[in-house]
């Protein structure tokens, strides 16, 4: 059985600071909202990894789906 859970990363200063303890200026944040720019891929990957470390619990992979 396939199980899918969605984990969103909110590209907002308050969310990034509160959830990931990252301080990001508007000038750094605005370009990230343009996700179709391949130059941003590495930054987006790093951001996703930080969010995953905080938001995804190992238990999510150990339990049986409902």
Structure description:
With 66 residues, the protein is mainly alpha-helical. It has a domain at 13-57. Helices cover 47% and strands 0% of the residues. It contains 4 helices and no strands. The longest helix is centred in the C-terminal third of the chain and has 15 residues, at 41-55. The chain is globular and about 45 Å long.
Outline of the structure:
The chain is an all-alpha fold. 47% of the residues lie in helices and 0% in strands. The protein has a domain at 13-57.
Tally of alpha and pi helices: 4
What is the H-and-E element order? Answer: HHHH
For the CA atoms, what is the radius of gyration? 14 Å
Distance between the termini: 10 Å
* Morphology: globular
Structural class: mainly alpha
Low-confidence stretches: none
List its traits.
globular, single chain, mainly alpha, 4 helices, 66 residues
Please give the structural blueprint.
Blueprint: H1 13-20, H2 26-29, H3 41-55, H4 59-62
């Amino acid at each position: 059985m396939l199980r899918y859970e969605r984990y969103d990363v909110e590209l907002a200063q308050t969310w990034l600071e509160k959830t990931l303890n990252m301080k990001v200026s508007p000038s750094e944040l605005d370009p990230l909202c343009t996700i179709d720019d391949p130059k941003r891929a590495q930054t987006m990957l790093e951001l996703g990894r930080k969010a995953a470390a905080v938001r995804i619990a190992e238990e999510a992979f150990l339990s049986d789906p409902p």
